[in-house]
Amino acid sequence: MLDAMADQSPEGLYDNFFENFTHSVAATRLLLGEAQRSGGFIEGLILYAAIVDALLRNLVALETAPRDGYKRTLDGHYFVHDKSKWLTERRIYAEARDCMVIDDALFLELEDLYRFRNTVVHRFIISQVAYSDIAPKLDQYNAIMERLLAQLAAVEQPDGEDKSPERTEAMRRRVARKLRRPN
Fold first, then answer.
1. Residue 10 pLDDT > 50
2. DSSP character for 9?
3. Per-position DSSP letters for 124-169, written without gaps between them
4. Above 80 in pLDDT, residue 18?
5. Mean local confidence (pLDDT), 160-182
6. What pTM does this model have?
7. Residue 15, helix vs strand vs coil
8. 72 beta partners
9. Where is average pLDDT lowest: 1-5, 59-63, 70-74, 175-179?
10. What distance in Å separates the CA atoms of residue 141 and residue 110, rounded to the nearest whole number?
11. Closest C-alpha among 26, 74, 57 to residue 174
12. Sign of dihedral through CA atoms 19, 25, 28, 33?
């Protein structure tokens, strides 16, 4: 189904960094659903980490953005992967804690999950981690993701954008571009 929605147009994936970021988060959530349905624990672990990182980047950018009344100007370096601007996942955790997007307890939980995920990804074969050890970590990540989604929903306010069926379908096609699969 996702492949059928992908627009194979020759233009670039997205018009700007934030559009790429937001559509990529949506695409990653779709991939997470596929991993959950297929029982892909390691894939789920990686995708949860990516989503949590993205939500924290968004929350930190919103929290630290200069404000002009209700308008915020977001710093683009939170939303791009570029060697001159790139922020590591752990740096994002620290910034989220420092600007009080998350508390110390959640910071420590994220650090623990980061170390666990890296063990699974880089040292699964030589570690004492069993595949069954991953499922409880997925539950932890899911609880964190839901908490951050609720935080983000509380911060962001609808701006009265056009929510027509045509616009919704166009957004779905753009999200699907991120999921292009090789032929």
1. no
2. -
3. TTTSS--GGGHHHHHHHHHHHHHHHHHHHHHH---------HHHHH
4. no
5. 71
6. 0.81
7. coil
8. 67
9. 1-5
10. 9
11. 26
12. negative
**Amino acid occupying residue 153:** A
Which H or E run contains 82?
none
The DSSP H or E segment spanning 67 is strand 67-68
Residue at 26: amino acid letter = A
pLDDT (tens digit, 9 = 90+) per residue, 110-164?
999 999 999 999 999 999 999 999 999 999 999 999 999 999 888 875 554 556 7
Joined together, the tokens standing for residue 68 give: 């002009």
Contact residues for 52 (Cβ-Cβ < 8 A; gap 6+)? 110, 141, 144, 145, 148
Per-residue buried b or exposed e for 1-11, using 16+ beta carbons within 10 Å of the residue's own CB: ebeeebeeeee
Q: 169 is written with which tokens?
A: 């379908």
Token digits for 177? 């571009």
* H-helix or E-strand spanning residue 71: strand 71-72
Residue that is written with structure tokens 């596929």 in the block:
34
